[in-house]
Amino acid sequence: MKSKNLFKGVFTALITPFTDYGTVDYAALERIVNFQIENGIDGLVPCGTTGESPCLSHEEHDRVIAQTIKFAKGRVPVIAGTGSNATNEAIRLSQHAEDAGVDAVLLVNPYYNKPNQEGLYKHFRAIADSVSIPCVLYNIKGRTGVNLETDTLIRLVNDCPNIYAVKEASGNIEQMSDVINRTPDDFIVLSGDDNLALELVKRGGDGVISVASNLFPKEMVNMVHSALEGDFEKAEKIEKHFAPFFKTCFIETNPIPIKTAMAHYGKCREIFRLPMCSLENPAHRTTLINSTDEIFAAIERGEM
User: What does the record give as the active site (predicted)?
Assistant: First the structure.
């Protein structure tokens, strides 16, 4: 089994770029993967929320994961999003990802059907038991309608040795702290929110699965690694520059803002899969690009 330290730091929740014809743009994906790795990212997460995974066909989902592994060439870990609201579908996706060579799978709470805590336990345990690679649970009540309670998480950690980590995107920093305090010392707790990443590390967390690092991998790594090394003054200085951008990344539903910003700077086309679409409010585009430009200006001034 892989070292748990492999899953510390900054992991980019990759966008899925599309062509003008609406198909997956694998050439752009390769450029994005190389851009991430060349700028020091700790790992990659294809087919998560930011990757518009609910809008991908099963065939596309499998291929995006396989191609990300191919493009990464073993240079950084790949954690593939393979969650589903149907347990048997999540098992199939996870087993395919394992066969493709991922380092771990990311398993989101089942969405829409809102299982109780026993249902969540049985769901995650069935998936963990079906693979031999590490599993990262993904708790995001705002998207799924159900919270993975800490008692249930502890039960899963005790019963499933390959559940290594949790991506905590509940938005509740006290719950996140409770998870840190109650799980084993080597259990990995990653923030699912860029704006809470620094505070989570201060409380003993291990990093972030980041939206902002799609465009700013080097700077996000600098912020989080500084915090992990105890240099909170440096990390706070970087975070101050990023605060407006973190906010505008969610000015409308993720991944609309981050993909719009990436398209503005030539990283991809501004194309989404319905029901996702371009920014609805024209003023939001101005706010987004202004906040992005401010970060680039700070980088040019050597402030990050």
Answer: 138 (proton donor/acceptor), 167 (schiff-base intermediate with substrate)
